Amino acid sequence: MELILRDEKIEDANAVTLLLQAAFADHPHSQNQEFRLVNALRDANALSLALVVQKNEVLFGAVHASDVQIVAAGQTLPGRFCCIAPLAVRPEQQRQGIGAQLMVAALLRLREQGYSACVLVGDAAYYNRFGFYQQAGLSSPSIPDEYVLVLNWQAAPVVGEIHYHPAFAELE
Questions:
Q1: Contact (CB, 8 A) for 102 and 61
Q2: Average pLDDT over residues 65-74
Q3: What is the pLDDT of residue 107?
Q4: For residues 88 and 125, what is the distance between their CA atoms, to the nearest angstrom?
Q5: CB of 79 within 8 A of CB of 36?
Q6: pLDDT confidence bin for 22, thresholds 50/70/90
Q7: Minimal CB count within 10 Å: which of 18, 62, 95, 156?
Q8: Whole-prediction pTM value?
Q9: What is the SS3 assignment for the chain?
Q10: Which distant-in-sequence residues (6+ apart) come within 8 Å of 57 by Cβ?
């Protein structure tokens, strides 16, 4: 049976939690709280996107996105912006292209939904392949700028501070 990429369903919630816990258990830059973020965003009906990859009824990966605002000089930038967080693949299925498949599908869907840009916090060496880059003047509270990345689909640069859904603050 082949991999199936689909929208997350409400009945996937427990399996997604277990997937996120497994994926981030040994990650050096994680406190393994990503499942709490996704659950809080889901409970607040604040997920802009939730995709999973499964095979034989087992979830192998998931990606989530939520709306953010970009604020510069006290003004909210015009446009529609989202943050991709988290992207996760079961440890035993990593390095098989599942994360890339999820990212490509997520970015296509988000662009179709009319987003101006996507931001994320991650390793540029990995996310550059999807078009993400560091933008001078784009920042995220308490995150080193080298990990703050953007994929911009609009003409104007995305500069300012990223303001996340309140669920993100619960993780600090």
A1: yes
A2: 95
A3: 98
A4: 17
A5: no
A6: confident
A7: 95
A8: 0.91
A9: CCCEEEECCHHHHHHHHHHHHHHHCCCCCCCCCHHHHHHHHHHCCCEEEEEEEEECCEEEEEEEEEEEEEEECCEECCCCEEEEEEEEECHHHCCCCHHHHHHHHHHHHHHHCCCCEEEEECCHHHHHHHCCECCCCEEECCECHHHEEEEECCCCCCCEEEECCHHHHHHC
A10: none
73 torsion bin: left (phi>0), alpha (psi -120 to 50), beta (else): left
| Cβ neighbours for 17, distance < 8 A, ≥ 6 positions apart | 35, 38, 39
Is residue 36 within 8 A of residue 24, CB to CB? The reply is no
- CATH numeric code, 4-171: 3.40.630.30
d(CA 150, CA 158): 8
Write down the domain spans for the chain.
4-171
> Rounded to an integer, what distance in angstroms lies between the CA atom of residue 71 and that of residue 149?
16
AA identity, residue 2: E
**pLDDT for residue 33 is more than 90:** no
